[in-house]
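From the shared-data thread, chain only:
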Amino acid sequence: MTEQTSASSAEDVLLSVRGVEVHFPIRSGVLVERQVGAVKAVDGVDLDIPRGATVGLVGESGCGKSTLGRAILRLVEPTAGTVTFDGTDLGSLAGEELRRMRRQLQMVFQDPMASLDPRQNVQSVLSEPLRAHGVGGDHTARVRELLDLVGLPASAANRYPHEFSGGQRQRIGIARAIALEPQLIVADEPVSALDVSIQAQVVNLLEELQDRLGLTYLVIAHDLAVVRHIADVVAVMYLGGLVEQAPSDDLYATPLHPYTKALMSAVPIPDPAVEDTRQRILLQGDLPSPADPPPGCRFHTRCPFRQPTRCDDERPALRTVEGHPQAHRVACHWAEDIEAGRIQPAASAVIEPDPAPDPDPAATT
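Structure, as tokens:
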């Protein structure tokens, strides 16, 4: 990458996260309460979100994805690190300055029923952010416009959340998020609570709104198929930290981190010939407690490629690997050796493909 290209890319970064940590204190004591530890939900994350792009954040439950999304919006206060939005350090803002900045950063929550007030009709739900931020004009007309953008009829404005299906409620949540014309939307599991038939409609709606309104997305999900469909860049998270980040096509074609390899091998392929002949990597054990994360590489307690040196005592940083794009970064000491086949997974962690079945003797007679 040339210096000119690097400068251009830097200028196009809308959100920059550097060294963000979110630690929740563990307190003990009856009369005198004292801190005895901390849950390290997010533990040193660096992430850039380009303007107009969609970044997917994936990982298993409990790895800190949602906490990171909330920390970016300062719905949860970071313990350390910086979040820079369009050149402004969000950590330096307070009071009215922070409230004004929130117009530019909005969130779509996972459970639309829990995030919508059951006592407010849709007109009230969608006009509330307009009133809160002093947006003038005809709020009724604006609500009709928002409903039209998300594919709902104008008559929906007089109805209450319980009168809608799950997919319709999520559309209302999306309409509320775009009401103030933000630049960035953090979508926390936007389709996980919906039926599969409805998921595609909501994902297509998000893409359509991005094209029409110039939105930037951070999509948090655990469904790799959904993320592959919508994301330009995918970041893989494990136990509070990023283990791999790459352009979507490159990550799915050539995953480098052992954890990413295991995740990809678990995704079913709708081709029996391929599905029956591919090798699968089985992760053993449970996710360690974020209150007591293992030293060194966070993944070494479950890694099928674990080595006796470095893995247990040296935490790897995200880095590029020779032969891959600069944007493809991985946090693994042995990524080159694993890719070249010099390091093989433990036999107990590999599920080999089924051998070809014997032909049916009756079919040959």
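Confidence is low (pLDDT under 50) at residues 1-10.
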